[in-house]
Amino acid sequence: MNYNKIYLYYFSGTGNARASAYWFGEMAKEMNIDCEVIQLYRTIEVKQETIIDENRLIGFFFPTHGFNAAPAMLKFIWQFPRIKNTSVFIVNTRAGMKVSKLFAPGLSGLAQILPAIILRAKGFKVVGMQPIDLPSNWISLHPGLKEKVAESIFKRCERITKKFATRILNGGTKYKALLSLPIDLAIVPISIGYYCIGRFFLAKTFISTKACNDCAICEQQCPVGAISMKHERPFWAFTCESCMKCMNNCPKKAIQTAHLYTFILWYLILAVIPSFGFWLLLKQRFVEFVGNEWIASNILSIFLFIVSIPVVALAYRILHYATRWKWIDDIDRFTSLTSYGFWRRYNFGLKQFRKSNRKA
Ligand SMILES: Cc1cc2nc3c(=O)[nH]c(=O)nc-3n(C[C@H](O)[C@H](O)[C@H](O)COP(=O)(O)O)c2cc1C
Ligand code: SF4
Ligand code: SF4
Questions:
Q1: Any idea where the domains of the chain sit in the sequence?
Q2: Would strands 125-132 and 206-208 be described as parallel, antiparallel, or unpaired?
Q3: Where does 5-187 sit in CATH, by number?
Q4: Which of 78, 108, 124, 125 lies deepest, with the highest CB count within 10 Å?
Q5: What is the CA(67)–ligand 3 centre distance, in A?
């Protein structure tokens, strides 16, 4: 297959998926193939030329979120038009780490399989499925990687992406993602749980502290428009995908993950409510009704999560309102691990982002 036009669509929080898309684009350029790199930012549009051009190749680049593709990209792929005789490939960036001299991979879960199934069902020919283990950006869970470590992971991933690109651009196929299929399938329940429930809970764990100067950079730059400024502070909507861009990019380092608040709220929902008498009685009746304890418990857990969503929304509104009081703001800061100096931000990918912007 000789491709004469390539469209690379990417969604990225902290620049990793974008870097991958650009590395692929560089290889296309070297091979004198016309290539366009297109960012998914708020409005999801498919370039009309993508549909018209013949002998085209389409690539999708996105981060892995909760063992699945980032929701914005899944939605985009779901809405993507059917284009006859078209080759597509999928690149998911994952949480790469480096322990001593060893590079540790992330986990894809459904991040490759689901987009591949959707694209295949639409009639596309999936010619490549490649995970790329760029630095983990989930700084709500761990401090950002040191710049040196991030740099060496980047160098390795650039080589891997370019090797993958060479193979695909020469008309070949590569399905590296399928090597971890058994593990990916084993964690499907977590992927589904994260997609249907977990991500909404995570969206309400961000706060800004008094260091915020109301510059609104976070609001303007959120790729899904999930932030609005309320009472001179950012307010996170449920549509937040926890891509980590706002937190890693805030010039005042004012955005934190409210660890203590999150712990208390989740403890109440997951441990305290299920131990109340009325809940135990409900469970007993439901187990009798269903006739299987395992199934009944799981259905009840899902029910608990769903009815907790309005509670989370209300608690978050109260927290947001209360941060205007200095003593609440102080408690927020002291109890958020992310506000301490040792808890680095991850902005290596975003710096590359700016570099490649200058190049363009
Ligand atoms: C909320 C969240 C969930 C994540 N889930 C996973 C995951 O399931 N598996 C994984 O390997 N990496 C996971 N990561 C790490 C990112 O996918 C990884 O760092 C990615 O390269 C970031 O790409 P970006 O800079 O383009 O946003 C997660 C990160 C965040 C913030
Ligand atoms: S949180 Fe940071 S980026 Fe957002 S308005 Fe405040 S200072 Fe600006
Ligand atoms: S609010 Fe922040 S973490 Fe959420 S999607 Fe927007 S930039 Fe990403």
A1: 5-187, 192-339
A2: unpaired
A3: 3.40.50.360
A4: 108
A5: 18
